[in-house]
Amino acid sequence: MNKILIANRGEIAVRIIRACKEMNIKTVAVYSEADRDALHTKLADEAVCIGPAVSTKSYLNIKNIIEAACITKADSIHPGFGFLSENSQFAKICEESNIKFIGPTADVIDLLGNKSNAKEMMKKAGVPVIPGSDGSVQNANDALNVANKIGYPVMLKAAAGGGGKGIRIANNDQELETNFNIVKQEAKISFNDDEIYIEKFVKNPRHVEIQILADEHGNVIHLGERDCSIQRNHQKMIEETPSTAVDDKLRKKMGEAAVKAAKVANYSSCGTVEFLVDSDKNFYFMEMNTRIQVEHPITEMRTGIDIVKSQIKIAAGEELKIKQKDVEFRGHSIECRINAENPKKKFMPCPGKITGLNLPGGNGIRIDSAIYEGYTIPPNYDSMIAKIIVFGANRNEAVSKMKRALEELVIDGVETNRDFLFEIIRNPDFIRGNFDTSFIEKRLKNDC
To answer: What pLDDT shows up at residue 163?
Structure first.
């Protein structure tokens, strides 16, 4: 690969550009009119405006992005996360335009993008799945039959869902009938696909995912787990590795299941297999994300493996040089997502100009961000503006470092969730590793 166009913005665009520079690969940034002064446009070798601020006319505009790649003679495109990263049509058009899509094939994205179909495939492959409907449910009566068969509570989920959207819990027949059409409507609006399916609702689980790397020659390895249980409205806020809920025996089983999932899907690139883990240490497949994850840095900190560089090498046709037995896990890593939002006003986004900035530093501290003093955060995109990643010899050291890092962080001019994150990090149950996906709802409900 000689030149990569990054079809994204913000910190992930900066992250990819940095990896490319270290690999001596030229880069092309694309930007909307709202991002004309964004950091990724300044770091890339070239920058092309692809449309106005609204995403559908810029970062989701396939035609403009492909044209930008052709004009700059980019031979490949990295989609980052969000936007077009899991859009099979985009991957297919890249292929038809003789541009390498840095990710899995369009067919694989289609296969795994439908959560209902992916679940059926995993079930046949012997990967544990949550009890639920056999594929999608067509109407409320079918949904009632499934719910009464597997027992309440159940979850209604958009088959093409992601990012915590298109999910509702029903505790009885009445709630299911009420929520059925709501979820179908949400799915149609969010994903242009109103297909939904039903799963048994696992009470108070841990959300644990396995990072995998798979090349185009059939080699697959996993890089351990990440615990993503600290979340609000199904949106992750804090991630860590290793998980306090996973012992060596369970880690081995989950890793093997993730590798099996990737192989049965004929997967290549980096990817993440997401599981729910119950209080009895049973684990169940939820979905497979066919892209780089927001939280990938904590795995990089713990294994020393650069996932973005690995992703690029795989797309270039290289064979994985590291075997499973060679993956070394050390220490503990935690990530906090810094969002420009006001937790005291129901997490309302807070775009605006950054008038003062101090980012934490020191041994074991990594900041992934695209902000700078004087930068104006536009109101058009996701509110995440930075990620603080810490590494310690053990969990206690990592927690202490995160406390110190959050104390040092100063972002003036806009509201952020820093204090809310600090409250979680200081919480005695979090410090003890005693939490699940309901942690914020139960312990910090006054702020939610």
So the answer is: 65
Which pLDDT value is given to residue 234? 85
CATH number listed for the domain at residues 131-200: 3.30.1490.20
- Which CATH number is correct for 206-447, 3.30.470.20, 2.30.30.100, 3.40.50.300, 3.30.70.100? 3.30.470.20
What lies within 8 Å, CB to CB, of 226 at 6+ separation is 208, 209, 210, 211, 239, 240, 241, 243, 293, 295, 298, 299
Contact 113, 160 (CB under 8 A): yes
pTM passes above 0.85: yes
DSSP, residue by residue, 325-349: GG----SEEEEEEEESEEGGGTTEE
Q: Residues in the chain with pLDDT < 50?
A: 446-448
CATH node for 3-102: 3.40.50.20
Please give the Cα distance from 198 to 325 (Å, whole number): 38
pLDDT of residue 357: 98
Ranges of each domain in the chain: 3-102, 131-200, 206-447
Catalytic residues: 291
Across 292-303, b (16+ Cβ under 10 Å) vs e yields bbbbbbbbbbbb
| pLDDT value for 442 | 84
